Amino acid sequence: MPTATGSDEKTQSYFPRWKLKTSGVIMPEERLSWGQTIVSGLQHCVAMSGATIIAPLLMGFDPNVAVLFSGVGTLIFFVVVAGRVPSYLGSSFAYIAVVIAATGYAGQGPNPNLPVALGGIVGAGVLYGLISLVVMWSGVGWIERLLPPAVTGAVVAAIGLNLAPVAVKAVSANAFDTWIGLATVLIISVVAVAAPGLWRRLPIILGAAGGYLLYLLFANGFGFGKPIDFTQLSAAPWLGLPNFTAPSFHADAIFLIAPVAVILVAENLGHIKAVGAMTGRSLDAYLGRALFADSVATIVAACGGGTGVTTYAENIGVMAATKVYSTLLFAFAALVSILLGFSPKFGALILSIPGPVIGGLSIVLFGLIAAMAGRIWVENKVDFANPANLITVAVALTAGAGDLTLKFGAFTIGGIATATFGAIILYQILTSPLAQRAD
């Protein structure tokens, strides 16, 4: 039976026996009253909603399906880690660049090559699962050697920079779209910096709402842009089945998308360690399970038309603010997400978000992905006086931002995969014993 790491008390069952506690720090194996659990669970739904909704829109996925499978994935995670690791699984932004590259998505409306993207995401999930099995067997030391902070940060930055042209194009159709996009950026920025309390943790969803209302006012009200069409929203029923889509498997798309698994491993590793630090106990014993759960959730989502999923920093932020780590909150939040997935009215509302508003959100979100690299480097005190670190980062950034594409017969490797594999291989070469002897 699993033991509660960091505690002398052995568990007697697969799941914890959640003990009621209504004040102070609430640990994963504790719970709030049921009323407080519902309210706190809804708070986690709000926290995840911005990114989980926007990510599928940027790839041309159905947001209803993505939200539904984020709930399903969170429940899978909850079961696999035995209810001992608090986490919500939402749409992963790591897939956006490679999905756009693999499908040639134009950035508006449904993705006509969605099945191709889904096949690639299944491939990423399978690779992710294989890595998780190795972690269960051998531990995480090899991952930390293969993906040190210099490499992880370089790949994260390359993803953000690779996506930058997509964001700029989304707000460049005309002057009105540009101003709406920039206004959306400004709203997000002000909320993130100056909003009171918990509102400060919801800049994406509040920015989307603010940009939507501005567009509605100036386009529908004053005629400066193409009006929002509410026909589909009015016609959509409140309850109904989502538009599930099956994957199709193409070797070039799989080869392009599957390397994202490497990024997700590093991301999940960081999140698990962050939660462990906040709760004051090591969760390393559950890391292999967490990776495996994430991989299974990704495969299940892609088999039905959902995006790949990952553990969410947004929800970790909520836990840091509230000091409530009860895993039951995430089970409740997952059930709410599943219910939202069965509301076509909800999906139609999301799909009515104007293109320039999504573009403004993209400018911020893609920029944050790139900026996260700086945080990784600073927190881990990466030494850029070391030529191995400096050259690895320089090459990865250029390959990612310039979308360096390599062709091997029928296989094509896009900029993200080139940056990822290039950074990993180059760093190992530059830090090899042979290079050190030459030095």
Features:
439 residues; mainly alpha; two-stranded parallel ribbon; two-stranded antiparallel sheet; 19 helices; 6 strands; 66% helix; disordered N terminus; transport
3D architecture notes:
The chain is mainly α and 439 residues long. 66% of the residues lie in helices and 4% in strands. The protein has 19 helices and 6 strands. A two-stranded parallel sheet has the order 1-2. Strands 3-4 form a two-stranded antiparallel ribbon. A hairpin with a 2-residue loop joins β5 and β6. α7 packs across α16. The longest helix is centred in the first third of the chain and has 26 residues. The radius of gyration is 22 Å and the shape is globular.
Q: Numbering strands along the chain, what is their spatial order in the largest sheet?
A: 1-2
Uncertain regions spanning at least 5 consecutive residues: 1-11
* Computed structural class: mainly alpha
| Largest sheet properties | 2 strands, parallel
Cα end-to-end separation: 50 Å
- The overall strand count is 6
Number of helices: 19
In short:
By secondary structure, the chain is mainly alpha-helical.
Strand and helix map with partners:
Blueprint: E1 19-20, E2 30-31, H1 34-59, H2 63-80, E3 89-91, H3 96-103, H4 114-138, H5 141-146, H6 149-170, H7 175-194, H8 203-221, H9 231-235, H10 251-257, H11 260-279, H12 287-304, E4 309-311, H13 313-322, H14 328-341, H15 344-351, H16 355-379, H17 387-401, E5 406-408, E6 411-413, H18 415-430, H19 433-438
Parallel strand pairs: 1-2
Antiparallel strand pairs: 3-4, 5-6
